[in-house]
């Protein structure tokens, strides 16, 4: 079968199945059975599908997701989260959308270091979304910034994905990491501008009620009692990672332990809260893992059947101006990214894109950064970005996929603006690493 | 019939409880091995391997329970736009399709399990673990998922709510 | 004309994959009109550790993978791991023929060739490695990265504190000081950029790479006589050619590392002999134990060692 036939079969079946309301994980599995049967030699292909699922599930890289979820759920159900956000609310006074800013700043700080976009989306989603909705924020004011921080996490160092990309593409790891700093700060600035704009256009999106001004003593008291201890769990988790005490994958376990200890100290740890936290974390983990199980093999089918390679070769086969070529590559990444996971995409595209980029006269570090952005954007692009489903799992039950799509959209736009800026002013990326 | 159903429900729930314990075990095993390591001791290798295996068992043991809880996300854009009788047909058809998928995987999973036994395959990590101990999770899990989806085909409840705005 | 589908275990940019792709090009050139290999991709097409099962089950016809990735099915791969010879000598002395027959019997696959052999492993460390009074390597306090292949040697003999990490996590683990030493092949450190953190190489090197091409037996038997001849001939030529190519690559890598300040610490005399013997014997012991559990038994044990290990080669 020609590559476009394979592509049509695979993408067509998954889109139809999801559209008629088949659970996402089952839709992937169904498309996999069909694809495995067609492209991997019948029944043996379906067995291979199970072997693949086995391989992708027994991988330590998945460990942070349930543990960050557990951390977030314990924060929420023991009332520690409420304490912290009440305090921040009082401290920041009447700035509209203050918790959205807190999400961008805190979320960037955290997810940038945790190294797992799914894990940190899970943590921030389960922690922030219910709290912010309780305080009268519209959903998009919490969901949007959380989905946005993933994009920051991947380009602000340290970034595990950047290291992997640099290794695969044989470019300077240090230069790629440093190249992400300025664009990362610009993106954070765009997010903050966006939130400001959203609260200006729709003042009802975030509560702007009067708060009684606090005396200096009360402020210090609030900070010491309700903010510092909670933040210190995150700070210690991050410090342990930087200090080499544990790896990023292991850090989540210590985060969860830290919150448990705090909950005991603050007297919020009831049996009921513990049971609810574990159940909540388990539900989202199972949902996300079964999707990982299905989508990992789907990625492989796209590659093995020749569909994705065909698409790449076709798209890059045109004789276009360098910038147009760049946009084509960017678009290919976005399309593939809706259905494939990030590491498979890198393995597939790096050997083709980097030589091409060099031929076109692009700086490989600059191109690497653009590619990282495309990878992360695709993770949150409707309709199938994986983080959108994780968010659906952790958000309150009345949140619809449509809510999540509309919340994600403006933040994706910010990332696209950043890409445009990088194309027009490559120095934004290349000045700091001195290239 | 009644006690049989209740026994089945109990099995499903206890599988979920085991899955929850696996989640807690992940935390405990990691904290344990990192602590040992930082005190200059060699954490036993099974600690690391057990957490990787826990990921698989957790997913497979918990997945049927999650079907009952309607926790597998789906997109309800098309179904919500249909008139109610059509909705019901689509919802039950989708559930039936899920049953079919689960059955195929249960069947292939059973085959894989038998092959692993017959070939005496090992999963090689810190230890050589007989692979069937792990792959037996597939037929068990997917069979029970098939049963749970079947309840949405013929039972009183529907998999979809039909209310895109509310219970998607 | 026959066509075989193929996948490779490592990413396309890695040197070992490039070597396999060269082999494919040679086959496709010489086999025009007779046999062609259609490469479907690497770990993005079929997971690294699932490729051996895929070729056994006929999902794909040919796989290029380290034997260690299917050591659970074929513990005899440890004969290659502990080997101090290359494919050239073991092709001549019947070693590869023996390993091929074991592959056919245990896994239903044809062992076509042992590529990229003659490359061994070193221990690489961040800080100057310490030697005890007898000149033995002292690993106390060393945070050593391990995996299933090394651990029999690292933990059982060296008594090291091993941290199991996948290759992809090693860079950041070195960066943050989670580990400060690792084993790796003589080649490839620069490609992985680990040389940014590692400053010492411990000699002698131990073990050998065990990368080989396996072909589904039904697919192999279904080929025309002519196709099989082309494949086997090209494979034998590539076995020899890849030894030479990688020797050059190793010398170039070593020179580049030395230029950047990589220092070499050499174990000597009895300490050196003990180190090498331990690496070898711990691996053989593991192989024997696992062979005995299999219905086929350990009957081939002596024959494997005789063909894949030459005591005279260590003395140099
Ligand atoms: Na980062
Ligand atoms: Na995606």
TrEMBL record, chain A:
InterPro entries according to UniProt: DctM, TRAP_DctM
Entry function: Part of the tripartite ATP-independent periplasmic (TRAP) transport system.
Subunit structure: The complex comprises the extracytoplasmic solute receptor protein and the two transmembrane proteins.
Keyword field contains Cell membrane: yes
Domain TRAP C4-dicarboxylate transport system permease DctM subunit as annotated: residue spans: 11-428
Alphabetical UniProt keywords: Cell inner membrane, Cell membrane, Membrane, Transmembrane, Transmembrane helix, Transport
NCBIfam families given in the database record: dctM (TIGR00786)
Taxonomic lineage from the root: Bacteria, Pseudomonadati, Pseudomonadota, Alphaproteobacteria, Rhodobacterales
Descriptive protein name: TRAP transporter large permease protein
Similarity comment: Belongs to the TRAP transporter large permease family.
Residue ranges crossing the lipid bilayer per the database entry: 6-39, 60-81, 101-125, 146-169, 175-197, 227-246, 252-274, 286-308, 314-336, 343-360, 366-390, 411-432
Subcellular location: Cell inner membrane
UniProt topology in membrane: Multi-pass membrane protein
Principal subcellular localisation of the protein: membrane
Pfam family, one: DctM
GO cellular component, as recorded: plasma membrane
GO MF annotations in UniProt: transmembrane transporter activity
Signal peptide positions (record): none
From TrEMBL, chain B:
Quaternary organization: The complex comprises the extracytoplasmic solute receptor protein and the two transmembrane proteins.
Biological source species: Roseivivax isoporae LMG 25204
GO CC annotations, alphabetized: plasma membrane
Protein name: TRAP transporter small permease protein
Summary of the function given for this chain in its UniProt record: Part of the tripartite ATP-independent periplasmic (TRAP) transport system.
Lineage, uppermost ranks: Bacteria, Pseudomonadati, Pseudomonadota, Alphaproteobacteria, Rhodobacterales
Main subcellular location of this protein, as a coarse class: membrane
Superkingdom per UniProt: Bacteria
Keywords: Cell inner membrane, Cell membrane, Membrane, Transmembrane, Transmembrane helix, Transport
Similarity annotation: Belongs to the TRAP transporter small permease family.
Protein's membrane topology: Multi-pass membrane protein
A GO biological-process term: C4-dicarboxylate transport
